[in-house]
Here is the input.
Amino acid sequence: MKNYINIEGKKIPISDETAENLKKEFLSKKATDSNDITMRSYDFMGDIDWDNKEEILITDEPEKKIFVNQKFADNSVFGDDCIFINCKFGFGSKFGSYCEFSSDSEFISSDSEFGFGSEFGFGCKKIKPYWDKNGKHK
Here is the structure.
């Protein structure tokens, strides 16, 4: 036998079969269920009934949050480092620094892209999606 394990300073010989089983146990990756690590799935913008979707008013300035498929009411207020995927925003929304918006996110406004009276902190940006609205690579 050429395989050993060390327990409390003692070198203990083990068989090749035991060594192989231990190697498989400790070196193999266990599969992770994607439901354990994702926040939730999302719908494509065109599949959402935006006219009938309830608006949400946010005023507690959440930070480091991810929002998906939400319609926010006028004067909603967000903190720093938030990510918005497929969201719509009312007038007068305020955002902290370093917020990111998927290219599908929209500001509800008839006269400007970002909604009348909306304010953005430092470093906010619109990010390009990995997939387009039809689920294809861009």
